[in-house]
Amino acid sequence: MIDLRFSEAELAQRRDHITAFIREQVDAAGVEEVVLGLSGGIDSTITAYLAVDALGAENVHGLVLPATVSSGENMSDAERVAQDLEMSYDVIEIEPIVDSLLAAYPEAEGDHEAVGNARARVRAVLNYLVANHEGRLVLGTGNRSEAAVGYFTKYGDGAVDCHPIANLYKAQVRQLARYVGVPDDLAEKTPTAELWADQTDEDELGISYDTLDSILATHIDGPLSVAATSRELEVEEETVEEVREMYERSAHKRQVPPGPEPLN
Ligand SMILES: Nc1ncnc2c1ncn2[C@@H]1O[C@H](COP(=O)(O)OP(=O)(O)OC[C@H]2O[C@@H]([n+]3cccc(C(=O)O)c3)[C@H](O)[C@@H]2O)[C@@H](O)[C@H]1O
Ligand SMILES: Nc1ncnc2c1ncn2[C@@H]1O[C@H](COP(=O)(O)OP(=O)(O)OP(=O)(O)O)[C@@H](O)[C@H]1O
Ligand SMILES: [Mg+2]
């Protein structure tokens, strides 16, 4: 695998680049404050740390949005992040909202993927309810590894105003997180979307983040062919092809929805 870690100087540069980006986004929108979902996972945790660095704790609001499938540990970690950063937050249980969707459309009951994605979309609705009401931007938490393979819910956790950590591979998220002061136990947590019980990213994706990050950096975002990537990383060509397929299949999630060409 390739070593994607930053040097000390690069860590400081990355932090400054992202905090400047957050300030620019807020300024350009003519607002002062942001809101983001806090899951207790590393992506939302680092984004909260960087947002507080950029804007001050008084301008960052967290939403902790437990579902029945959320672990108590993750939800208490999410609250710990907000408390450690001295930012305001609300805890809102989302399952009654999800239940009302299923009461309206019971056909989806038991379809854990459809219902899981609905959980992510209910969270997006709540983020925007707060953003509209309080004049805030919604901060996204998507990183490069997830975005490249479409590992997010379209118009769920993907429905945000900007993604400050969009350029970081997962390993780099962990490294920068420690650098900006995220406690080790949070930086080292097993990534999970928690859209259904016992879900983990690596199980569902069928690949470890270390391998995924290396293939993305070498082949999808880098210059090497499938065969050269396979040799360079000592992974099967089939694995590189699978990542390429996930990347291509999810292109629609990274684009503005298209319409027909205009006719004169
Ligand atoms: N070619 C195409 N062109 C245009 N649109 C296309 C399309 N193919 C599907 N679609 C549309 O996209 C929909 C499928 O996309 P989507 O609804 O996102 O659903 P889908 O990609 O099937 O599922 C979301 C995936 O992201 C994972 N996830 C979600 C949320 C958070 C996290 C996390 O890491 O925390 C991970 C989740 O576990 C699952 O694996 C289809 O129902 C269809 O409406
Ligand atoms: N229970 C939750 N409460 C509030 N927001 C949530 C919750 N679950 C998910 N989210 C939002 O959806 C985003 C996407 O989830 P994702 O799992 O990719 O990130 P994460 O939990 O921060 O980190 P990791 O990928 O390591 O688990 C989160 O960063 C967070 O903003
Ligand atoms: Mg998570």
TrEMBL record:
Catalytic activity as recorded in UniProt: deamido-NAD(+) + NH4(+) + ATP = AMP + diphosphate + NAD(+) + H(+)
Database matches in CDD domains: NAD_synthase (cd00553)
Domain of life where this protein originates: Archaea
Residues that, per the record, bind Mg(2+): 43, 146
Coiled-coil region list: none
Residue spans of biased composition, Basic and acidic residues class: 241-250
Family annotation (SUPFAM superfamilies): Adenine nucleotide alpha hydrolases-like
Pfam families xrefs: NAD_synthase
Region called Disordered, residue ranges: 237-264
Broadest EC class assigned to this enzyme: ligase
Domain NAD/GMP synthase, chain residue ranges per copy: 17-257
MF GO annotations: ATP binding; glutaminase activity; metal ion binding; NAD+ synthase (glutamine-hydrolyzing) activity; NAD+ synthase activity
This protein's record includes keyword Nucleotide-binding: yes
GO cellular component: cytoplasm
Keyword Cell division: no
Main function: Catalyzes the ATP-dependent amidation of deamido-NAD to form NAD. Uses ammonia as a nitrogen source.
Record HAMAP family: NadE_ammonia_dep
Protein family per UniProt: Belongs to the NAD synthetase family.
Quaternary structure and interacting proteins, as annotated: Homodimer.
PANTHER family per record: GLUTAMINE-DEPENDENT NAD(+) SYNTHETASE, NH 3 /GLUTAMINE-DEPENDENT NAD + SYNTHETASE
Protein's name according to its UniProt entry: NH(3)-dependent NAD(+) synthetase
Source organism: Natronorubrum sediminis
Lineage: Archaea, Methanobacteriati, Methanobacteriota, Stenosarchaea group, Halobacteria
